[in-house]
Amino acid sequence: MVSTASTPPQKPAAAAPRRKVSRHRGEGQWAKGHYTPLNGNEQFKKDDDGLNVRTRIETIYSKAGFDSIDPNDLRGRMRWWGLYTQRKPGIDGGKTAILEPEELDDKYFMMRVRIDGGRLSTQQLRVIGEISQEFARGTADLTDRQNVQYHWIRIEDVPEIWRRLEAVGLSSTEACGDTPRVILGSPVAGIAEEEIIDGTPAIEEIYRRIVGNKDFSNLPRKFKSAVSGSPLLDVAHEINDIAFVGVEHPELGPGFDVWVGGGLSTNPKLGVRLGTWVSLDDVPDVYEGVISIFRDHGFRRLRTRARLKFLVADWGAEKFRQVLEDEYLLRKLHDGPAPEQPVERWRDHVGVHRQKDGRYYIGFAPRVGRVDGTILTKIAQLAEDHGSGRLRTTAEQKMIVLDITEDRVDSVVAALEALDLRVTPSPFRRGTMACTGIEYCKLAIVETKARAASLIDELERRLPEFEEPLTINLNGCPNACARIQVADIGLKGQLVLDDDGNQVEGYQVHLGGALGLEAGFGRKVRGLKVTSSELPDYVERVVRRFEAEREDGER
Ligand code: SF4
């Protein structure tokens, strides 16, 4: 039971004792009748739906304060509303694994605002910026899942933040937790000249049908999704639990190729194609079928094996499609083609591009997604001053202003550059991403955002002539929030030894990962670790050697 106003906060439900795995006992799938929770997470989800915590936040916690929060809500259900406690300042990375969770908890929250399809009006962006300034000490990071992330949120302010967000059609509903997370969408859906198909109606219908629906609010783990009809493959479809990728069927016309079972973190896996062609109208049904399979058949015994990718690996694409068709959709799907190789390597839409209606969209790059409330408010104003009411966030921690007439392009570019939002960034500014890291994240071992920002500056100074697309992704821990496994240079934060044998912040290096039709994971070179202070020297060496020894066309 969850606590109420009259009951004191209780200890989190203890995890079930660890038992030896046996095939006979199964993986905790509901479809096989395994309804007894096999770990603490499954227990708290069974005790009370995560979505129900909203009422307690509004009626109890926001009034009685942080210390009134039930621990099962604090470290569990609050994620269903996009809220995590942030890391207490001043605790170094060496203590991350050895301290109890409550010793790492600050009394402030990170709040994630979902921006499905990355679609924003200038009014929405202005509200996001105002909330940042009023309630989040100015913080507002752009994430690599098209969200905005605040820090320093007090529980007392959460109901008012929701009221303001929801008044303009935004929310933090299921922005975290074992839920259908934000639906990524092509940031240039509906406007790009080269678009195969606009997936926006499908994203809107999926949101209406699935998000906040208690039929889908207790999944085995998070469920990441993406829909893009762009030939640039601009939503990292390979690493989502489900992705719909625009293709042209020779007889049926434009539609979507379906991928399932992608995901990074530990045991990274690329999604696999089901080999089907799905029309725009059918996308929500197929999404609902796949998320239902995940809910019913997904593994719930171990958190580390609970993502859809493990079920897909166990069944294979053929069986997955057959179960989807025979038991969930009750009809056969068309066979369909694979997407084609994109003509460009950058997928972030940075720069000035013509829209299909003759106007222009302008993509720009802050450093590693770090903006703030003041900047976001200025971007909203700038867009409006130049006749645009629409913006988009990208899956690469960038933003785009839409609908600029030709005569206004130069002044928009100049205004953005004046805010240090680069429209023609160096490849280092353009291709470097970083996760939240030790500044706020309780799992982090090392600093990321500031380190990546200084790395960009240093590489721009040392390698001003370098122009090749290059991705450098930094994570603060072994998780994969900044997608290190699929970067040219992936840097996984950990403590390493310096030349004098002291433990210092550093990174395990992964080299040669990629997304796109040549997608693959970078190779972890045994023993190749760099300290944070050596990082610019190391990356410079890699880049210079690549330039000197690359063969024609080699990436
Ligand atoms: Fe935190 Fe690790 Fe994710 Fe970075 S990769 S945000 S440190 S959990």
From TrEMBL:
Point out the signal peptide segment: none
Q: Which GO terms describe its molecular function?
A: 4 iron, 4 sulfur cluster binding; heme binding; metal ion binding; sulfite reductase (ferredoxin) activity
Q: Which domain of life is it from?
A: Bacteria
Q: Where is the composition biased (Low complexity)?
A: 1-16
Q: Needs which cofactor?
A: [4Fe-4S] cluster; siroheme
Q: Which Gene3D superfamilies match?
A: 3.90.480.20, Sulfite Reductase Hemoprotein, domain 1
Q: Which segments constitute the Nitrite/Sulfite reductase ferredoxin-like domain?
A: 105-168, 353-418
Q: Which UniProt keywords apply?
A: 4Fe-4S, Heme, Iron, Iron-sulfur, Metal-binding, Oxidoreductase, Thioether bond
Domain Nitrite/sulphite reductase 4Fe-4S per the UniProt entry, residue ranges: 176-328, 430-555
* E.C. no: 1.8.7.1
Region listing for Disordered, in residue ranges: 1-41
The record's top EC class is oxidoreductase
Q: Catalyses which reaction?
A: hydrogen sulfide + 6 oxidized [2Fe-2S]-[ferredoxin] + 3 H2O = sulfite + 6 reduced [2Fe-2S]-[ferredoxin] + 7 H(+)
Q: Which family does it belong to?
A: Belongs to the nitrite and sulfite reductase 4Fe-4S domain family.
Q: What does this protein do?
A: Catalyzes the reduction of sulfite to sulfide, a step in the biosynthesis of sulfur-containing amino acids and cofactors.
The protein's name in its UniProt record: assimilatory sulfite reductase (ferredoxin)
Q: Which organism is it from?
A: Streptomyces uncialis
